[in-house]
Design brief:
Elements: H1 15-44, H2 139-149, H3 152-156, E1 161-169, E2 175-182, H4 187-197, E3 205-207, E4 210-212, E5 214-222
Antiparallel strand pairs: 1-2, 1-5, 3-4
Helix pairs in contact: 2-4
């Protein structure tokens, strides 16, 4: 070994030793600084208060339970019917219905058939049977009448509606009576529908191959196109 490479003189303190020596001064210096800062805060801001973290709870209300329901006992079981007993009976005669013949009941002695009672169906709307319904014959005249009778105030306001009208049509298809079946909700439209009803012409209704008078209901609709 080269004697010149060996350091001469005493060895100095290490970094660890220097840290241990300075710990006391740093510790007490920090404590003193923290104490000064705390006293300064309390001196300049003495009104510091803790936040209110209290809470309130709603008072519980007692709920009254409904009275206990008494369930009635089940009804008594219905007794089964008694077993029928067949009585012993001796019937000597042969009970039969006497035969009915034309000789014993001649046609001349039979009661007349019931007379047909004529009913006037024109007095009020009523059900009248038919197999072929009447149809409108003058649709163009009806359309022109609806345009003419449409109330101007309702038409300009865009208000429309449907009126159902009862028609009493005779055997020739002529309208003998008409009246409101279902209103539109507007008196002016109902009156206009009755004026239009006077224009209607129908084909007669048929019940099989016979012309019959009938009551029918037709809608009359007023709307802005």
């Amino acid at each position: 070994m080269n004697p010149e490479a060996v350091p001469s003189g005493p060895v100095g303190p290490t970094a660890n030793d220097r840290l241990k020596q300075s710990f006391q001064s740093w510790f007490w210096g920090s404590m003193i600084a923290a104490t000064v800062i705390h006293f300064g805060i309390f001196a300049f801001w003495p009104d510091f208060t803790a936040a209110d973290v209290s809470y309130t709870a709603d008072e519980l209300e007692a709920i009254e339970l409904p009275p206990e329901i008494e369930i009635p006992p089940p009804p008594q079981q219905i007794s089964r019917p008694a077993t029928p007993v067949i009585a012993e009976a001796n019937i000597d005669e042969d009970i039969t219905i006497a035969p009915t013949t034309f000789e014993d009941n001649p046609v001349e002695d039979l009661p007349p058939p019931p007379e047909e009672v004529a009913t006037d169906i024109s007095s009020a709307p009523t059900f009248t049977p038919f197999t072929v319904a009447p149809s409108i014959q003058n649709r163009r005249d009806v359309i022109r009448a609806m345009e003419r009778e449409y109330p101007p105030l309702l038409r300009d306001a865009g208000i429309g509606g449907t009126v159902k009208v009862f028609f009493f049509i005779d055997e020739e298809g002529k309208v003998n009576d008409f009246r409101i079946d279902q209103t539109s909700g507007h008196q002016a439209l109902d009156d206009a529908a009755l004026n239009v009803a006077e224009v209607y012409r129908f084909s007669p209704a048929l019940n099989r191959d016979k012309k019959v008078p009938v009551w029918v209901s037709f809608p009359i609709t007023f709307q802005v196109r």
